[in-house]
Design a protein that fits this description.
This subunit may be involved in monitoring complementarity of crRNA and target RNA. It is a single chain. With 140 residues, the chain is mainly alpha-helical. It has a domain of 97 residues. The protein has a two-stranded antiparallel ribbon. Helix content is 68%, strand content 4%.
Length: 140
Amino acid sequence: MALVEKIWKDKAKEQINPWAFSEVAQEWAQRISQEGGGKEGHKNKNSQIRKYYDVIFNLNQRSKQGGGNWNFILAQLHRQLALVHYARGRDLVTDSFVKMMEELIKAVSEDAKRGPRDLETVAQFLEAFMAYYRECRPKD
């Protein structure tokens, strides 16, 4: 099952899976940590992954405050895909991390009314993911 299908119980109705921010986020944090080499791994370091979360968090804040047009926010969000692929090309992140980010970013609607709500859900999922990821990789 795709990540987006695990986060949204029914995306069309904007119903979020009650376990998206606990079980699903924890499962993905463990998967990406293990693929990156676990606690002593050299890929998927906290600092590397945190950069993407910070950008998405800030874009979400900007969206909620009405501080920018939606097309600009959406373009900056999709710019993160290029940066994630660049990091993979430099062998800093793994395929699972790239897949997760692609699914999350592509799940955000282009629609100016629905998109900000999608972005908020994605930001909340990444916040939960980062909390579990810190547990998996405490030394990074």
